[in-house]
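Subject: Interface between my chains keeps coming out wrong

I've been trying for a while to get a sensible model of this assembly. When I model each chain on its own everything looks fine, but I need the whole thing in one frame so I can look at the contacts. Pasting all components below, labels as-is. Any help appreciated, I'm running out of ideas.
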Amino acid sequence: MAHTIGNMRTKETILMVGICLSFVLLGLIYFMLVDTNAISAEQFRTDIWLAGADLFGTVIGGLLAIAIFAIVITMYERNLPEPAKTNPLSITEKERVTEILKDIVGGEKDE
Amino acid sequence: MNEKGHSLAQLLVIPLLLLSVMLIFDLILGLGEVSTAFKRFANALLTSYTLGSGAMLGAMFFYADSRNKPLSPLIGMLFATFLGAVLMLFALSYSDLLLEGNGSMQAQFFSNVVHLLVVTSAICAAFGLNAGLLMSFISGQPPRTMPWDDEEE
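Reply #2:
Try treating it as a single job with all components included. I did that and got this:
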C-alpha cells in the first residue's frame, strides 16, 4: 500500500496543479473582463490588487514573526556556556560499568 | 509521456501562461485603484507580524520550560512583539498613513484583524481543499501492481 501512494505520481501531480491553477486563473480573467450583477470588471480588477496585497502582507508578516522567533532562540543557544566537565569515574563506578557491560555483551545467563 | 520526463517548467507552463495573459489584460484594461493596495499590504504585514509574534511569545514559554526557564529569549520575543505593536500604533495614529476609509485607529485595527482572519481562513481552506483533492485523486486510481509476484508467507 505504501508503494501505491505518493510514489511515481509525477503525472498526477502535473494534472492536479495544472487543473487547479488554470481553473483559478481562467476565472480571474473572466471576471476581469465581464461585468456581472455582483461586481463590475473595473471593481474586480481593483479588488484583485487588494486581495493580493492582503495575502502577501499576511504571509510575509507571519514568516517574519517565525524568523524572529528562530533568531532569538539561535542567539540564546549560541550564548549558552559550554557544559562543565564531569569528574572521571571512580573505581566503584568503573566496576559497576564493567559489570553492566559484561551482562550485555555476555547475553542471557544460563540458569 | 514517461514518468521521469516532467520538470518544474512543464508543470508550471500553462498556469504561467494564463498568469501572463491575466497581467497583460490588467495592463491593457487599466490596473484599477492600486494606491490603497500599498496601505493594505502594510496593514496586513504589521498586523500579521504583531499577532504572529504574540503567538510565538506563547510558544517561547514552552521552549523556556524545556531549558530551565531562561528569561533572555522571553524578553527578546517580548521586545519583538512590542516593537511590532508600537510600529502599528504609530503608523495608524500618524495622519492617514495607514487608514483605509476607517474613521479611527481602533476601527482600522479591528478591520485589519478581520482581514487577517479572512486571509488565514482562505489559506487554510485552500490547503485543505488541495489536500482533499490530492487524496481523492490518488485513492481514486486503481492500485498499481508490482512487477514481481507477492511474497508468500
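Reply #3:
Confirming on my end. The longest helix of chain A spans residues 41-78.
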